[in-house]
Specification:
Four Helix Bundle (Hemerythrin (Met), subunit A), CDP-alcohol_PTase-I, mainly alpha, 7 helices
């Protein structure tokens, strides 16, 4: 197994630790920042999430730079992204920070795209992610990180950056999903 795939696997292995941090009754105290508060466990979970999300850039960069792109990596990388994002958004529902309907739309889009990719794989095709999909992922990751950080540092200026990025992520999720299906509809029409 090459280094980029090991990096991707490390992202997958960080997910259960991230989940445990946010679900176990851990109380490491609270940071008070003026009128705003941030549980330290949420801060640690946000850091772990940012590290895990950062491995997505590192494995992709390393795989392209050293020509180490493999079929295993093409499978593992998007799966790791979907697992990390889905776990984080579901936990944010439980924490009362994200409406469930938004997460349902986001996760449904991921299932639909994965289904289309499976049909394409059955036809011997590999469907690459487009630029809009990459922006979607970026805004999802930023929204999750800022939600976990309780909108720090934007809470100081009373700007709901976390909510703004969440809704941008939602819009990009829908638009990129529609765009992906339109561009790749020939796969569905040509499948047996």
């Amino acid at each position: 197994m090459n280094i980029p795939n090991r990096i991707t696997l490390s992202r997958i292995f960080l997910i259960p630790i991230f989940i445990l941090l946010l679900t176990l009754p851990i109380n490491w105290g609270i940071w008070t920042m003026g009128t705003e508060t941030l549980p330290i466990v949420d801060f640690v979970a946000a850091l772990l999430f940012i590290i895990a999300a950062g491995t997505d850039w590192i494995d992709g960069y390393y795989a392209r730079k050293y020509n180490l792109v493999t079929n295993l990596g093409k499978f593992l990388d998007p799966m790791a992204d979907k697992l990390l994002v889905s776990a984080a958004y579901i936990l944010l529902i439980e924490m009362g920070m994200v409406p469930a309907w938004i997460v349902i739309i986001i996760i449904s889009r991921e299932f639909a795209i994965t289904g289309l990719r499976l049909v394409a794989a059955g036809e011997g095709l590999v469907l690459a992610a487009g630029n809009m999909g990459k922006w979607k992922t970026t805004f999802q990751l930023v929204s999750i990180a800022t939600l976990l950080l309780h909108n720090f540092p934007f809470a100081y200026i009373s700007f709901p950056f976390d909510i703004v990025t969440l809704y941008i992520a939602l819009i990009l999720t829908v638009l990129s999903g529609v765009d992906y299906f339109i561009k790749n509809w020939h796969v569905m029409k040509g499948s047996k």
